[in-house]
Design brief:
The complex is a heterodimer of chains A (about 90) and B (about 400).
Chain A (H helix, E strand, L loop, with lengths): L6 H16 L19 H15 L15 H16 L2 H4 L1
Helix pairs in contact in A: 1-2, 1-3
Chain B lengths: L8 E10 L2 E2 L1 H9 L6 E2 L12 E2 L22 H17 L12 E6 L5 H12 L10 H5 L3 H10 L5 E4 L5 H14 L5 E8 L4 H10 L22 E9 H6 L6 E10 L9 H15 L8 E3 L6 H15 L7 E3 L2 H4 L6 H15 L1 E2 L22 E2 L4 E8 L3 E8 L3
Parallel strand pairs in B: 5-6, 5-7, 10-11, 10-14
Antiparallel strand pairs in B: 1-2, 1-8, 1-9, 3-4, 7-8, 9-15, 12-13, 14-15
The chains are: A mainly alpha (about 90), B alpha/beta (about 400).
């Protein structure tokens, strides 16, 4: 279901998950928005990452990001990267 | 604060099992020398986890050395560790519980975050994965959270108030605080108290992994580039005694548990609030009758997570003001890992060692200063210095804070 998505489709699906967690309209979320802007605290951010991982069947690495202060765009980028790693094969996905 | 100074509770025995092996002395020497107990994770399913490292009790630990053959089948790993540590502490104290009514006036208060998690994990695997349809008949008595306290009371014939204290990562400090309060109230003369944890089963490791707070390299408290906590396991147990009781029998006093401070953030379930931890530190000082400048050393909670280390630094500034810059603050979790409900007890071994030897253990794995963590953390090298009084911080998920104030003997 999440195979061969276009970059726009990935972005809109990530935004839909963020919107659900933040309880705001998807249209209100801009790429430069941060999760903090929508009042998503650290534990909620971790739950949202968990939902995103399940949705795309990917693993997003722990480090290198502060999910509550980073932008929605950086989250989309992390998903793109994880999807690319998955497409490259199970060995590369780790 | 209007409470009178608490000068009545002393420590006359200590024992530990940690990533450094068996013995409080072995733990202390490891910390003093800045050695690391953190190793690649030893687990049958290590390949199925993102967690790469842990501070585990070495495989050489043999529970049969510490408890009777008859008792062994009844014990989860957390009780095995607790018994080994309690035996050592009681032996050091020199107490004879068969004398007079001492056994009736001795309690056992043991902190643990989750108790018999290894048992829970193993037995769940049997029914869910192997579909055995049955579990071991001792499952309940092994996994109940009061088992370590009960097993210590049984092994040593102690009949006073005995129960478990659970407050996640602050369990040991809350247990020790409770023990001190019972002695001060006159309810008992002696309490065997501390913390134990052994919860590195597949299920709980996966749960920690999901929370995204575990470092994949090592534990670097207060340092730039820190990537989270490193899980540990172990137990440290102490004999606490009223000062009058200890003096009357001429006991060697290792230190005085001079005051305690406890508070709840009543805010976020996970994110720390410096106001709450500062309140607990302030209470511990007041309870002990210590001024900020009486304190030489703080054994920090210092988990190595982004959030804790910044919040704890801020809390220390709030309590100590300008004097904060003159304190030495170190996190020994950089070496013995975060043993959760046992961590405050392992860290009390560090504080007592520092007082005895005049050496503050270092914060290891420190790379470079984080501007938000601007105290003296004794980075990477032990600090020879006199420690007259110290605080030992433990702050738990759930927003629960417990701080011990310890005075050097003498």
């Amino acid at each position: 279901m999440t195979e061969n998505l276009s970059p726009d489709e990935v972005a809109s699906q990530v935004i839909a998950i963020v919107a659900k967690q933040a309880k705001v309209e998807a249209a209100a979320i801009k790429p430069e928005s941060t999760l903090k802007d929508f009042g998503i605290a650290s534990l909620d951010a971790i739950e949202m990452i968990f939902d995103i991982e399940a949705h795309f069947d990917i693993t997003i690495p722990d480090q290198g990001a502060n999910f509550d202060t980073d932008t929605v765009q950086s989250l989309v980028d992390a998903v793109d990267k994880a999807l690319a790693a998955k497409a490259a094969g199970p060995d590369a996905a780790a | 604060m209007t409470q009178p100074p608490a000068s009545g509770v002393v420590i006359t025995g200590m024992g530990a099992v940690s990533a450094f092996g068996e013995g409080a002395e072995r733990l202390w020497q490891g910390l003093r020398e800045g050695r690391s107990g953190i190793r690649p994770l030893r687990h049958a399913r290590a390949d199925k986890m993102r967690i790469r490292v842990a501070a585990q009790v070495p495989e050489t630990f043999d529970p049969a050395q510490h408890c009777s053959e008859r008792t062994l089948p009844l014990l989860d790993r957390c009780s095995q560790l607790a018994l080994a540590a309690a035996n050592e502490a009681i032996a050091q104290s020199g107490l004879d519980f068969s004398a007079g009514d001492l056994a009736l006036r001795t309690g056992v208060i043991i902190g643990t975050g989750v108790g018999g998690e290894t048992t829970h994990d193993e037995q769940s695997r049997l029914i869910y994965e192997e579909h055995t349809g049955r579990v071991h008949p001792f499952t309940i008595v092994r996994l109940m959270v009061n088992a370590p306290a009960s097993q210590i009371s049984i092994a040593h014939g102690l009949h006073g108030p005995t129960f478990a204290v659970a407050s996640a990562c602050a369990s040991a400090n809350h247990a020790l605080a409770q023990a001190a309060a019972m002695i001060r109230s006159g309810l008992v003369d002696v309490v065997v108290s501390g913390g134990t944890e052994a919860c590195l089963g597949f299920g709980s490791l996966k749960a920690w992994e999901a929370m995204r707070v575990v470092a994949d390299d090592t534990c670097r408290p207060f340092s730039q580039g820190r990537r989270g906590l490193v899980l540990g396991e172990g137990a440290a147990i102490f004999v606490l005694e009223s000062k009058a009781h200890a003096r009357a029998r001429g006991a060697t006093i290792l230190g005085e548990l001079a005051g305690v401070g406890m508070s709840a953030d009543a805010g976020d379930i996970a994110a720390p609030d410096p106001a709450g931890s500062a309140r607990a530190m302030g209470q511990a000082l007041a309870d002990a009758g210590l001024a900020p400048e009486d304190v030489d050393y703080i054994n920090a909670h210092g988990t190595g997570t982004q959030a804790n280390d910044v919040a704890e630094t801020e809390a220390i500034h709030r309590v100590f003001g300008a004097y904060a810059a003159r304190l030495v603050v170190s996190s020994t979790k950089s070496m013995h890992g975060h043993a959760l409900g046992a961590s405050g007890a392992l860290e009390l071994v560090a504080v007592l060692g520092a007082m005895r030897d005049g050496v503050v253990p270092p914060t290891m794995n420190y790379v470079a200063a984080d501007p938000a963590c601007d105290l003296d953390y004794a980075p990477n090298a032990a600090r020879p210095m006199r420690v007259r009084a110290a605080l030992s911080n433990s702050f738990a998920f759930g927003g629960l804070n417990a701080v011990l104030a310890i005075r050097a003997p003498g």
